[in-house]
UniProtKB/TrEMBL annotation:
Keywords tagged on the record: Signal
Protein name (Swiss-Prot/TrEMBL): Peptidase M6-like domain-containing protein
GO biological-process terms attached to the record: proteolysis
Organism in which the protein naturally occurs: Ampelomyces quisqualis
Recorded superkingdom: Eukaryota
Signal sequence, start to end: 1-24
GO molecular function, one term: peptidase activity
Keyword Metal-binding found: no
Amino acid sequence: MAERKRSGVSMVILASTMLDMGLAVPAPVSRQILLDPFAPIDPQVWVNPDNMTWEQFVAPPSTDWSDPSRKGRDRNFNIAMVTVDYPDSAFVVTLPVQSDIFGNPQPLASGLEREDVPNFYKDLLNTPNELNQGHTLHEYWMGDSFGKYGVDLTVFGPYRMPSLRYQYGIDDEQGGFNENACPEGPPCSVDLRTDALGAWRRDVGNETANSYELAFILSAGQDESSTWQEFGEMKFASRDDVPEEFGPPINSTLPNWADTRYVEWTSWAAASTIWPNAGGGSSTQGESSGMATFAHELTHLLGVC
């Protein structure tokens, strides 16, 4: 019986202690949330990347993923970049400042010699420097894979394509982005991969070409992905307001606008540029595509997305 009395006293003391503790700690989180049923369970603080500055980039602690001497733990992707231009379209960075209809090139990169273009883009994309603020494709993939994979980039060219630029850019096949937009004369929907990779293989030989697992094709000029909106509905009130300078060749009977991918129209000049894409071990990009596009297309080539 004495044992039972001690147990009862212990229970009273325990209950009293728990009551005192309850008065000393805050209410459970679930009870707090009930005070404001609209309070987010997981509040988010974010900034639109368009509004961010270089200074807002924060690298993971104790890392320097952009260091080209630091290889991926598993390996680096071995990629060839094949640079091409056209009889009617030089590389934008070889032109005088803001001399084309898109307002390019920019003052930081203009007036280059044609033979210097391949190395310029290699450095822009994959060598830490002042122009890219120290950010590279290698850094992106090292960061995304926690140091597992990096990027090695070797440049080739420049190669002059046999057809006009718009012949590769206008996708006028049935169901294509730019149906009925090909001017009278030579055909459009010409395959850029066939001509670009063919020129590269003839130059370096199949053995060298086959030593690369993937290829980026860098095409002179803009790309449609970065121009359809800015030089379409954002610049012109309607398709009928597109002026002749943004239209097809002067001897064409086509209108100055053309079909495009996401909306009903854009300027013909924008539609006549290539649309970046990836498949079959290679991807196509324009000079305006930017590092993010190369990184994005590489994910397609690797089957990540």
